[in-house]
Amino acid sequence: AAMVQKYQSPVRVYKHPFELIMAAYERRFPTCPLIPMFVASDTVNEYKSEDEAIHVIERRCKLDIDAPRLLKKIAGVDYVYFVQKNSLNRRERTLHIEAYNETFSNRVIINEHCSYTVHPDNEDWTCFEQSASLDIKSFFGFESTVEKIAMKQYTSNIKKGKEIIEYYLKQLEEEGITFVPRWTPPVACKLESSTSHTRRPVSPAINIPDSATKEGLNNKEILNTSSSPSEPTAGTPDDKLDADYIKRYLGDLTPMQESCLIRLRQWLQETHKGKIPKDEHILRFLRARDFNIDKAREILCQSLTWRKQHQVDYILDTWNPPQVLQDYYAGGWHHHDKDGRPLYVLRLGQMDTKGLVRALGEEALLRYVLSINEEGLRRCEDNTKVFGRPISSWTCLVDLEGLNMRHLWRPGVKALLRIIEVVEANYPETLGRLLILRAPRVFPVLWTLVSPFIDDNTRKKFLIYAGNDYQGPGGLLDYIDKEIIPDFLGGECMCEVPEGGLVPKSLYRTAEELENEDIKLWTETIYQSASVFKGAPHEVLIQIVDASSVITWDFDVCKGDIVFNIFHSKRAPQPPKKDSLGAHSITSPGGNNVQLIDKVWQLGRDYSMVESPLICKEGESVQGSHVTRWPGFYILQWKFHSMPACAATNLPRVDDVLASLQVSSHKCKVMYYTEVIGSEDFRGSMTSLESSHSGFSQLSAATTSSSQSHSSSMISR
């Protein structure tokens, strides 16, 4: 069975008032020469309210789909009929359009929703949005063909939609119509309505939810207004992208690519209450997986967890590279290439990779490379502003002059491969072009070692020049302006990149020193990770002395689904026994798993549940807090979430038996952080929490509720 195809458009803004756009839109009916496949339309139903504010019209549209004749013959139809229902509300200045197919409705289900609304920041502008879904149940064995035809027709029509409105606007203008008055209530009820109207614009807080609840839209603004009416509610709703912004900052995307970006971004906003990556970064992950939204989502989530775990967001501001790196790492940023991409110069041949690995260890090197990549992301953003067009990747120039057998030292190569792997996974589609210059004879050997680790898409961007070929035709000058070619390549530009050289042996450190250093670097994170197994939850003990403290938590579910609980007990649990892990024999440091609640304890007698259980799905980020009522011991518990067995038989289901044979299927991983705050500091800390989570309005809504219910846990669905 085919998957349901979904489409969601960006917001298209017309810099014209709603009424004029409506006049243009109406001209598409009954037929429209600009849409050749739109052959005819008949009005089936019509309703007008007495004051003419509401006008609903239902039409049956006849389409001549551009499909192979054979297919039409097999299907036995020449035309496809759609039903389109337009609901115009002149008072609210909205038009909602619902369309679905009547032909083949038992085989193919097509639903489309479009809306024209007033721009939130400018009442003389109009926003247009559309979304659709296509579900092909069966089509005489031609499901995939039909899907391709439908998608092709649909996307070409999306492109046309804007041209059509603009065409009719121009036609109206030629006829001298540049203004259409707004709807006003009939005179009879003038009195009461004028009073209500003077009152309304004063407080948009009433205005917005009012129309939103009518439409049954789950509008985020409602949350905003209820938590603090003083906030301005308008703004291009910041959880939406508009078409002009996409073109200017992200590039020319096809309608389906735009749709993937918008949907993935929407999903992130719903599930990740932490920092959401910038749009151009989300787009990189989509590009890396050819816009397969599920695959892109998977690698992006892994990367977000990784960023959080290693505090990558703060690398540029908080990490100072050791002096050895500043002196001996022969790489640095150097202006930009002809396409406006930031240019990174690396004199790999002059660099003592072996010495650097021995003096620093892999971790510090990796961290340094990460900081270079973070800087690269920043520079792309700046260049996008400076050059007035989207720039999302950088160019890397690697000079191999001086490359020798030292560079093939195994630990060095291993470190390089690991760094490449981490960068590939977390900075996809950031390398626009790689120029490898002055490649020596050993290079092919190194290249065969490294190239299998490099993504195919990335490999296409490599240009390799032996000896002085880079100075000839098709060389460096094709990619980099003459004025900025570095001096060491025979150019006239002074290049600030360190020259490298051998790292003195006196700076080498022993394996043990490095080992300790490495561990410190990797666990320099406030998060702890835990494994959760079927029958073996992970539990954390928090002792509370002051009755009204606040326990806060923040965790990511990296793998599997779990249930999160919080319990209170008057007496201290026994310290966990070491052998509780025997059954699973987990020795890895990442597999922290502790049980505190004694098997003989009874819920309700020895300990009580103070929060209702929260089911958290894989990939979710959860933050919450609990205001404690009593002193004593609180236990936070992450438990494996298992499907209930057949209640009727009470016998284990076959699936359960199979699952229990395959241990990996019920191992969950959680990364968590907890903190106890005195209740008087809590208000303050919640606001700081809010700011660090990119101002999600839900957070402020949740805080207000926590004082009544003694708890608030936020999870995102």
TrEMBL record:
Main location, first listed in the record: cytoplasm
Subcellular location: Cytoplasm; Golgi apparatus
GO MF assignments: RIG-I binding
GO biological process: innate immune response; negative regulation of RIG-I signaling pathway
Keyword entries, A-Z: Cytoplasm, Golgi apparatus, Immunity, Innate immunity, Phosphoprotein, Signal transduction inhibitor
Taxonomy, superkingdom: Eukaryota
Pfam family, one: CRAL_TRIO
InterPro entries noted in UniProt: CRAL-TRIO_dom (IPR001251), CRAL-TRIO_dom_sf (IPR036865), CRAL/TRIO_N_dom (IPR011074), CRAL/TRIO_N_dom_sf (IPR036273), GOLD_dom (IPR009038), GOLD_dom_sf (IPR036598), PRELI/MSF1_dom (IPR006797), SEC14/CRAL-TRIO_domain (IPR051064)
GO cellular component, one term: Golgi apparatus
UniProt domain CRAL-TRIO: residue ranges: 321-497
Annotated ranges, domain PRELI/MSF1: 5-177
Disordered as annotated region, ranges: 192-212
Function: May play a role in innate immunity by inhibiting the antiviral RIG-I signaling pathway. In this pathway, functions as a negative regulator of RIGI, the cytoplasmic sensor of viral nucleic acids. Prevents the interaction of RIGI with MAVS/IPS1, an important step in signal propagation. May also regulate the SLC18A3 and SLC5A7 cholinergic transporters.
Protein name: SEC14-like protein 1
Species of the source: Pterocles gutturalis (yellow-throated sandgrouse)
